[in-house]
Amino acid sequence: MSGPALVVVGPPAAGKTTVGTAVAAALGVAFRDTDADVEAQAGTTVADLFVQHGEPHFRALEEQAVARALAEHGGVLALGGGAVTSAATRELLVAHGRAGGAVVWLDVDVSSAARRVGLSRDRPLLAVNPRAMLRTMLEARAPLYAEVATLTVATGGRSVDEVVADVLAAVGQEAP
């Protein structure tokens, strides 16, 4: 199997970056985040892309970034929370899973996600009413995460170490 050792998907505030970074360190591989890739390519933040160019423009850049990262990155790859809204991205993730790759859905409940997000200005889709937007987003995207995931790990109310240990166990590795 080529491509990432592990792909991490999930909604905002599920812990994709935090858990992904820790899992990458435990596995001794590089960590990559497609939101960071999009920001590097665009020369601006995700939040500013949303404001200046709109969500469709951002999603097009994100789709390209995910395809590129899936093709060239061998470590742990974290996708933005909405990456699964792209049918093309879901196809690539399903194919990655069918080829033996791991796609981990970090699932989080609304109250845990709302606590983690707080009043973050870096999350453009959650700027107005974070709890209501999170609930709507989690409900709408859950089937999409389920479609692409080869395994699911709950993160709500759990420590990073507990989640990392579950992810490592699921991919057949020991926690450090």
- What is the overall number of helices? 8
Which residues sit in consecutive blocks of at least 5 with pLDDT less than 50? 119-126
Order of helices and strands: EHEHHHEHEHHEH
Helicity, as a percent range: 55-70%
Measured by DSSP, the beta-strand proportion falls in 5-15%
Strand line-up of the largest beta sheet = 2-3-1-4-5
Q: Which helices and strands occur, and which strands form pairs?
A:
Blueprint: E1 6-9, H1 16-27, E2 31-33, H2 34-42, H3 46-53, H4 55-72, E3 76-78, H5 87-98, E4 102-107, H6 110-117, H7 130-148, E5 151-154, H8 160-170
Parallel strand pairs: 1-3, 1-4, 2-3, 4-5
Helix pairs in contact: 1-8, 2-4, 3-4, 4-5, 6-7
Q: What keywords describe this structure?
A:
globular; 5 strands; 176 residues; alpha/beta; single chain; 5-stranded parallel sheet
What features would you describe in this structure?
With 176 residues, the chain is α/β, with parallel strands linked by helices. It has a single domain (6-170), classed as P-loop containing nucleotide triphosphate hydrolases (Rossmann fold, 3-Layer(aba) Sandwich). Helices cover 55% and strands 11% of the residues. It is built from 8 helices and 5 strands; from the N terminus they run E-H-E-H-H-H-E-H-E-H-H-E-H. The protein has a 5-stranded parallel β-sheet, sandwiched between helices. Helix 1 crosses helix 8. The radius of gyration is 15 Å and the shape is globular. The two termini are 25 Å apart. Mean pLDDT is 86; it is low at 119-126.
Overview in brief:
This protein is of the alpha/beta class. The protein has 8 helices and 5 strands.
